[in-house]
Amino acid sequence: PNIKSMLLAEPEHVFLCPDYKQAELFVVAMLAGEEKLLELLLNGVDIHRTVAAEMLYGVPFDKVTADQRYLSKRTVHGSNYGLSWMKLGELFAKEKIYLEAKELKRMQHAYHSGFPKIKAVYQKNVEAELLTSRRLVNAFGRPRTFFGKLDDEMFRKGYAFIPQSTISDLLKRAAVKINQKLPVLGEQHDSMWVLS
After folding, report:
1. In sequence order, what are the beta bridge partners of 187?
2. Fewest CB within 10 angstroms: 11, 92, 140, 190, which?
3. In this structure, are residues 82 and 123 in contact, taking their beta carbons and an 8 Å threshold?
4. CA dist list (Å): 98 to 29, 68, 78, 89, 196
C-alpha cells in the first residue's frame, strides 16, 4: 500500500507533498553534459513522454499512452543506472509486463542513441573513478567508498549513488528549512509530507 494513503490530516489541515520533479534525471544530465536532455528538463517537458514519442515508439507526443509512458520511464531510469536489457526485462516481468529480448534491446539502444553522453561521459566517468579510487562524492560533498568486487553490479551502484544521494541530501536540507514553519512528517525518495 501507498504510505501517503494511510495518513490523515487533522481537521482544518491538509497534507502538502512537495516533490523534486525528474530531479535524479537532471543530475545525470548535468554530469553527462547532455545538452539536449538538459534543455528539455529546463523547459519543463515531460521527459518520459518525450522519450516514448520520439525515441521508443515514433508517435505524436499527445498520442503516447499511459503504458508507453510508464515503459519509457522505467527504460530511462534503468538505462541511466546501467541495467542490462535482461535485468530491465526481469523488472517488467515482476509487474506482469512481458517484452521480448529484441524489444528490450531496441528500447535501450534508442534511448542511449538519443542521449549518448549518459553512457559515453557519465557512466564512463563513474567507472573510471571507481577503478581508480573506489570512491565517489555527491554534489554536497558526501563521499561513499565502494568495497568488494569491481563488477557490473558495483558500477550500477556507482551510477545510482551520485544522483540518488544528491537528491536525498537536497531534500533533507529543504525539510530542515520547511520544518521551521510547518511540520515535516516524513519523506520518500524525492518528496516529503508536510502538514499545513
Report:
1. 192
2. 11
3. yes
4. 29, 13, 16, 7, 43
